[in-house]
């Protein structure tokens, strides 16, 4: 069996600017097209589904504010993933670090009670959440830097352990985090001073701006500081970093701790914002995993993560409302997330390589005498 | 104390190890060719629900197993396309497959929620042999897929280390340039074994559904077994025979909570028992790593790196 053509990948010296923009956009449309085929095959109307998703995700007051509210969390988990990914450290346990952020934030919000004013209390809660997230990644970070243990598997295994922990603190009778006044197991509310007010009638909290500021600050750290420079050198060439006297071990640990802290912060933002307590349903929402998609779609660019985070949140919010407005299963949203990422990865090849098809000459036909 | 329940637990631990053996063997074949497929969990879930739907619609559990296995290979082919042909980042591609597979499985599983299948895969009957105390239920109380999985691990070991194609497979994972110089297609070998690996994972997922859970419980159906299987490959040093041993060991930690609960041993908090399999895997993973030990352990040297002939 001979295939009469060959696909040749030619590496581009420089990527044309328009491709950097067109490829991710085309990936999203390709994924939506794939999703449409799938919806058709399973007996749903693709146009109706997408119109509803767009309306409920972006083109209505509740839609856009809910989208921005969700993007608060996804931008944080997104930069958490991207910050580690850019140094080839694959912290995929952001999900578990986010759970710990909920626990850490709720602990501060309950234990410190009403003694402090909101202006101090909220930052303290956020800080405790971030610290809890960082603590959760400490072991993977330490063994990765010392022993080379794969952080991919270790951070992920810890996510399952964190999920058990969430269930444990809510379902155990008499638990510190459990509401003592109800027989139905649910989280104990944090002090009023640890809760922020949402804007008007929306479900959007001021933490959205905190997320934007942190994304901006980290962008500055990576581009302008010596620490950022070290990260760049290590990721580009570990050997060059070694000869330049850069302590890769220490940088590895710090980058992973910051990554964990950012996911923890996302959890604490839910405490000071919409939740006000530990919601055990968090373990079914996958906000931490979504952060990986957000980061990958933005190609780990901390500025672009704001865009991909909002885009993605819209997809989620629109997808979630489908269940209410139509009978389309909610999971189409998650499936589209995965599909967009798969198409984006495939599209990446078109950005990096000049791909063309070459006709191969059939050796047997060439033997004809001249 | 009831001795019987501990025997039953051993039998169940070996049973649950079946999915782990199949999934880990699938991951092992894939990784031996130099491709890292982190999408195992997504493949397990999608295969599980596909096999359920197929078995439910046709009334044949065997058709369910076949459909689940084929779906596993199809999903793995997406990963092969992205990582071998398009040279994408294999880690992110694998994660994308997990997210895509989870969404797809939950979408497909919507009509299956709350349903169960009446005929499940039953243990083989060995007549009087099954009545032997202790050995009977443990050795002769399993179903055909469990025996198949163990036999497959033994055959895989022979295949990898004593046959020509096995040698080519190992060489592709360790030193693709040499394989290429031999005139073999690195891409073709990698795609082939990624798909074979996916099929094995798919079989594992289908078996989990049709012999163990017999109903759809969304992501809790697999509950991280795919990730444990990936860690198991490291634990086994990329050697099939050691996978059997490791899978049974992890099978015990997975089964222990149920047994202790049945025995009403409650001094260990149930949350801790729930964490145990993941904790044990994590500790094993850390204990096995030493500085620069990746090659000592037997990891394929070109694992996760795309092979590009003209860019060297």
What's the layout of helices and strands?
The complex is a heterodimer of chains A (370) and B (312).
Chain A: E1 5-11, H1 17-41, H2 46-57, H3 61-85, H4 94-111, H5 118-147, H6 151-171, H7 207-224, H8 226-236, H9 238-243, H10 248-272, H11 287-297, H12 304-325, H13 332-352, E2 353-359
Antiparallel strand pairs in A: 1-2
Chain B: H1 3-32, H2 40-58, H3 61-85, H4 90-109, H5 135-139, H6 144-162, H7 164-174, H8 176-181, H9 186-213, H10 225-235, H11 240-262, H12 270-288, H13 294-297
GO molecular function, one term (chain A): transmembrane transporter activity
Subcellular location (chain A): Cell membrane
Transmembrane segments (chain A): 21-47, 67-85, 97-113, 119-139, 151-171, 204-222, 253-272, 278-297, 302-318, 330-350
Written description of the protein model:
- The complex is a heterodimer of chains A (about 375) and B (about 300).
- Chain A is mainly α and about 375 residues long.
- Chain A has one domain (about 5-330, about 350-360).
- In chain A, about 65% of the residues lie in helices and about 5% in strands.
- Chain A has 13 helices and 2 strands, in the order βαααααααααααααβ.
- Chain A has helices at about 15-40, 45-55, 60-85, 95-110, 120-145, 150-170, 205-225, 225-235, 240-245, 250-270, 285-295, 305-325, 330-350, and strands spanning about 5-10, 355-360.
- In chain A, helix 1 (about 15-40) runs antiparallel to helix 13.
- The longest helix of chain A is centred in the middle third of the chain and has 30 residues, at about 120-145.
- Chain A is globular.
- Residues about 365-370 of chain A have low confidence and may be disordered.
- With about 300 residues, chain B is mostly helical.
- Chain B has a single domain, classed as ABC transporter involved in vitamin B12 uptake, BtuC.
- Helix content of chain B is about 70%, strand content about 0%.
- Chain B contains 13 helices and no strands.
- In chain B, helix 1 packs antiparallel against helix 9 and helix 2 (about 40-60) packs across helix 10 (about 225-235).
- In chain B, about 55% of the residues are buried.
- The model of chain B has no long low-confidence stretch (mean pLDDT about 85).
- At the A-B interface, strand 1, helix 5, helix 6, helix 11 and helix 13 of A face helix 3, helix 4, helix 10 and helix 12 of B.
């Amino acid at each position: 069996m001979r295939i009469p053509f060959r696909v040749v990948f030619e590496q581009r010296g420089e990527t044309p600017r328009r491709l950097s923009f067109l490829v991710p956009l085309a990936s999203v449309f390709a994924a939506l097209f794939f999703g449409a085929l799938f919806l058709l095959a399973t007996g749903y109307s693709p146009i109706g589904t997408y119109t509803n998703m767009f309306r409920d995700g972006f083109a209505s007051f509740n839609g856009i504010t809910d989208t921005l509210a969700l993007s608060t969390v996804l931008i944080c988990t997104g930069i958490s993933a991207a910050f580690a990914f850019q140094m080839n450290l694959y912290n995929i346990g952001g999900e578990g670090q986010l759970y710990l952020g909920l626990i850490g934030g709720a602990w501060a919000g309950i234990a410190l009670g009403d003694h402090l004013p909101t202006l101090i209390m909220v930052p303290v809660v956020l800080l405790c959440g971030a610290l809890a997230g960082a603590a959760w990644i400490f072991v993977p970070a330490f063994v990765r830097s010392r022993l080379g243990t794969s952080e991919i598997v270790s951070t992920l295994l810890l996510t399952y352990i964190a999920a058990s922990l969430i269930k444990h603190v809510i379902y155990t009778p008499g638990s510190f985090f459990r509401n003592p006044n109800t027989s139905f197991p649910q989280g104990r509310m944090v002090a009023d001073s640890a809760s922020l007010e949402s804007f008007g009638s929306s479900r959007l909290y001021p933490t959205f701006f905190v997320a934007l500021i942190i994304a901006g600050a980290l962008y500055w750290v990576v581009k302008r500081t010596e620490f950022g420079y070290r990260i760049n050198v290590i990721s580009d060439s570990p050997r060059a970093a070694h000869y330049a006297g850069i302590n890769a071990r220490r940088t590895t640990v710090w980058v992973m701790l910051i990554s964990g802290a950012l996911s923890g912060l996302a959890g604490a933002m839910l405490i000071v914002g919409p939740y006000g307590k530990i919601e055990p349903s968090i373990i079914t929402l996958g906000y931490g995993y979504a952060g990986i998609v957000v980061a990958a779609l933005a190609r780990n660019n901390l500025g672009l993560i704001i865009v991909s985070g909002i885009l993605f949140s819209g997809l989620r919010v629109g997808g979630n409302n489908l269940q209410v407005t139509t009978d389309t299963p909610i999971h189409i949203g998650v499936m589209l997330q995965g599909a967009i990422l798969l198409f984006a990865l495939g599209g990446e090849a078109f950005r990096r390589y000049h791909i063309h098809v070459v006709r191969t000459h059939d050796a047997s036909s060439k033997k004809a005498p001249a | 104390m009831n001795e019987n329940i501990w025997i039953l637990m051993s039998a169940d631990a070996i049973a649950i190890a079946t999915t782990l053996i199949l999934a880990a063997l699938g991951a092992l074949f894939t990784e031996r060719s130099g491709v890292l497929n982190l999408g195992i969990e997504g493949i397990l879930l999608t295969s599980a629900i596909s096999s359920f739907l197929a078995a439910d619609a046709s009334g044949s559990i065997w058709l369910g197993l076949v459909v689940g296995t084929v779906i596993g290979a199809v999903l793995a082919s997406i990963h092969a396309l992205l990582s071998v042909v398009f040279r994408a980042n294999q880690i992110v591609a694998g994660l994308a497959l997990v997210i895509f597979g989870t969404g797809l499985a939950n979408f497909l599983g919507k009509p299956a929620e709350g349903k169960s299948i009446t005929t499940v895969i039953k243990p083989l009957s060995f007549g009087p042999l099954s009545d032997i105390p202790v050995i009977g239920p443990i050795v002769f109380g399993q179903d055909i897929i469990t025996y198949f999985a163990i036999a497959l691990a033994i055959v895989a070991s022979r295949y990898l280390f004593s046959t020509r194609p096995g040698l080519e497979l190992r060489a592709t994972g360790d030193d693709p340039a040499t394989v290429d110089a031999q005139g073999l297609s690195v891409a073709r070998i990698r795609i082939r074994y990624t798909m074979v690996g996916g099929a094995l994972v798919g079989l594992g997922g289908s078996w989990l559904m049709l012999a163990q859970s017999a109903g759809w419980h969304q992501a809790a159906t697999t509950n991280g077994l795919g990730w444990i299987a990936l860690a198991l490959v490291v634990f086994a040093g990329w050697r099939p025979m050691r996978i059997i041993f490791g899978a049974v060991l992890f099978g015990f930690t997975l089964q222990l909570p149920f047994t202790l609960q049945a025995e009403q041993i409650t001094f260990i908090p149930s949350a801790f028992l729930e964490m145990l399999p993941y904790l044990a895997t994590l500790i094993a993973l850390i204990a096995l790593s030493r500085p620069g030990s990746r090659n000592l352990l037997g990891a394929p040297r070109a694992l996760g790196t795309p092979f590009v002939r003209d860019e060297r």
